[in-house]
Amino acid sequence: MAYNMKEIVATKKPHFTSGHRMCAGCGAPVVARMIMRALKDEDHAVVANATGCMEVSTFIYPYTSWEDSFIHTAFECAASTLSGVEAAYKSLKKQGKLPQEGDTKFIAFGGDGGTYDIGLQALSGAMERWHDMTYVCYDNGAYMNTGIQRSSATPKFADTTTTPAGSVIPGKMQSRKDLTGIMANHHLPYVAQSIAFGDFRDLYEKAEKAIYTEGPTFLNVMSPCPRGWGYPTEDLMTINKLAVQTCYWPLYEVVDGKYHITFKPGKKLPIEEFLKPQKRFRHMFKPGNEWMIEEFQKEVDRRWQELLDLEEMSNK
Amino acid sequence: MSIRERLSGNEAAATAMKQINPDVVAAFPITPSTEIPQYFSTFVANGQVDTEFVAVESEHSAMSACIGAEAAGSRAMTATSANGLSLMWEMIYIASSLRLPIVMSLVNRAVSGPLNIHSDHSDAMGVRDAGWIMLFSENNQEAYDNLLMANRIAEHKDVLLPLMVCQDGFITSHAIENIMLEEDSEVKRFVGTYKPEHYLLNRAEPIAVGPLDLQSYLFEHKAQQGEAMKKAKDVILEVSKEFEAWTGRHYGLFEEYKLDDAEIAIVCMNSTAGTAKETINKLREQGVKAGLLKLRVFRPFPGEEIAKALSHCKAVAVLDKSDSLNAAGGALFEDVTSGMFVNKVNVPTINYIYGIGGRDTKVDDIESVYKDLMEIVNTGDIGNPYRYLGLRRK
Q1: What does the pLDDT look like over A11-21, one tens digit per residue?
Q2: CA angle (A192, A42, A211) in 5-degree steps
Q3: Topology (CATH level 3) of domain A5-314
Q4: pLDDT band at residue A5 using 50, 70 and 90 as cut-offs
């Protein structure tokens, strides 16, 4: 259906109820609810969740926020757990053993720790085996559930509890892994990058495409964390917009190998705009550390240009 | 009508799986169990089963996928060995805590390191407290029979626990021996259809599985698992009785071989029991009253029954094909002696660690154990209770 936020929020089932225990100002529950809203009302879903903030805050025995069927097993295996569920569905359907008619969709949620790092093997395997499922990574750029430890999604120079900005080493010294690119190179039918807040149309439409494209699909959704990033909770919307407008987190999709950048800022903002409101980058603004901002900007520019090139090349 | 065949242990396990016709099999190759998913893939490729075969990228994912499939409402099976089971370890506990009656064929092999592909029981012993029912098999026939009974036991409403059927790597898995197979239709009737009460794919009743389970509830949930394991003992015996009425092959919690009047006895599991029986026959001809207790059901552990069965002996040796490296004996020894102590059976009992990394155990070796037991009976002196069998000293 054509996107109309008021109508969608008013008429479509949320599938994910309030009363969960995620922090104020967190992007993840917004992502979960918006993605689940993209499910057709007549369809049932089985949701798999990797261990992480989302799981431990939405399903504390005996309460759950999930209205569809839901399974959590461990940290690194949301994708392989869900591949078992999907295989069972195929098998039972083929044998006429399912109790009801109707479609069931398979959606996995994992944070960046459970997806970029410990769960990468299970994710890669499930996608390569072509299970009909959508895997959603809510990327908040560190292990927030255990207390802000660096992951391979953590941006360079970020101050985390395992890459503290010290007097000798100024935060994390390695750049972020490009997981969306890695998943695009699995040659999946649909891969996209979106954000939690600030462009609901983008998130909703990409979720709908991902869920209703047959085969394995992947969504990487930037999902800010007020505790880990160090911004006031009310600035969630602003942080999202700055990530996109500085081209730190481009919005794009890859449909059957063709890249399409879904938002190109009219005026690309300097990266300071995104870095400055966040405590994790505070040390980069001390006198003498200008080189860090320059280097960060260069990496953002390089990756943005690479994406523009991919878009041009893949649509030739 | 039973069918006479000649199959290896792996072929026997794969044949049982074919006849059970599970909805999902998720497995990863590892020596010596690799042949099981290989044979099974052929059944899938030739349309002999209805199964979705998930060729996962690791054993961790194999068990994760089995958990997903079983929770979804389907019957799921897998096979593995040694390091494969080690990699599954995290998920092994999760499978049992979610009360999912997954069935696994475990072909026992030494866990690294260093790397060794041959048979011992260190893989199985590593998961002995994980809440799985564990059945051990002397030969291909028992591996087959135990698998045919597995779903009935695991899926019983009083049990709902995962189950593994163990057999020795290479010695059983790769040796071709005679076997009696049952007809497909008869197996289908005996195994029956899987009817879970609650499952993910029932859209009329969505469920949530695998919560964060904190101080207020986890203890009670673990106690329920423990209760189910206790109840499993009776269910195993019931199903075994029904199996015997069908096939004529008798199974209990353990097999007693010439144990009734035995003065000295050995306790062991899997293929070594065959060698022990051969040794007993030889010793009996010499007038030595030697006997054997071959344990089939290791989990739940029948401590009381074992104690009773050994109570008349004058000396007992427990053979562990895995070293617990704890300076206090192997896992089977600890369980057997604990069962004896609690049930007030005081028979001198010693432990042998043997067969590590596939070290061959021959009739001569077993005979030396009985000789040691005779000496204990004659002198009344146990000596060192923690011993090795077949260890090179130089």
Answers
A1: 998 899 999 99
A2: 10
A3: Rossmann fold (3.40.50)
A4: confident
